[in-house]
Amino acid sequence: MHEEILVVEDKSVKDLLVYEPGLIKINHSLVLQLISEHGFFKPRDIVEHDPAFKQIIPYIAMYNDSDEILTLKRLETQSEKRLHNKLSIGVGGHVNRQDSESPLQAFKKGMEREIAEEVNVSIKDEPEFLGLIYDQTTDVGQVHLGLAYKVKVDFYGINEKDKFEYSWKTQKDLKKQRYLMENWSIFILDEI
How far is the C-alpha of 98 from the C-alpha of 110, rounded, in Å? Predict the structure, then answer.
């Protein structure tokens, strides 16, 4: 399948990134402006290993009423081989041209689509923007730019049972399992 995904050129985000791995606090409106003014679509197979482009990834941490965090284990059946068997506290993925021809609308619709693809939830609050995630220390991180959010949900189950196992964990439990987590999740865990 030929998939066109939302990207920005690396040069358009240089002023926003500190180029140290982590979660970068930034005004949400600046990020949305970046997508609106500099976002465009390119074939995924072309940008997947090219750090001149940053693939825009909405990445949403979900909480329940007990303040436990939805934790996913990425199985070997999911597409990103570089993250197999890692723990994740983020739901999200690539934004596609099919989400909308407008980059900003595509981002918003893509976030909704990714949530609906992976989990069955009712969102209880407006998602809270946490910041940008960037990690140039890994092959995956060099070509992706995460937009991190957190949101409280009512959870009804996981939709991609063939790709993920799930559990609910406290922050304390997750900190003990930090060594099993993908970098982006560690960055969010350190912030919340």
Answer: 9
Report how far Cα 81 is from the mean position of its chain's Cα atoms. 16
Residue type, 142: Q
With contact defined as beta carbons under 8 Å apart, do 191 and 94 qualify?
A: no
Q: Tell me, what DSSP letter sits at residue 84?
A: T
Question: For the whole model, what pTM was predicted?
Answer: 0.89
* DSSP-derived 3-state class of residue 168: strand
Q: Report which residue type is found at 184.
A: W
Task: Report yes or no: 97 and 103 within 8 Å, Cβ to Cβ.
Answer: no
Please, what CATH class does the domain formed by 4-191 belong to?
A: alpha beta
For residue 109, name the pLDDT band (cuts at 50, 70, 90): very high
CA dihedral in degrees (143, 23, 64, 78; nearest 10)? 20
The secondary structure of residue 184, as a DSSP letter, is H
DSSP structure class, residue 180: G
3-state percent helix, strand, coil for the chain, nearest multiple of 5: 35, 35, 30
Residue 81: CB partners within 8 Å, gap ≥ 6?
none
The dihedral formed by the CA atoms of 141, 144, 145 and 149, expressed in degrees to the nearest 10? -90
User: Do the strands 53-63 and 144-158 form a parallel or antiparallel pair, or are they unpaired?
Assistant: parallel
At residue 140, the pLDDT reads: 81
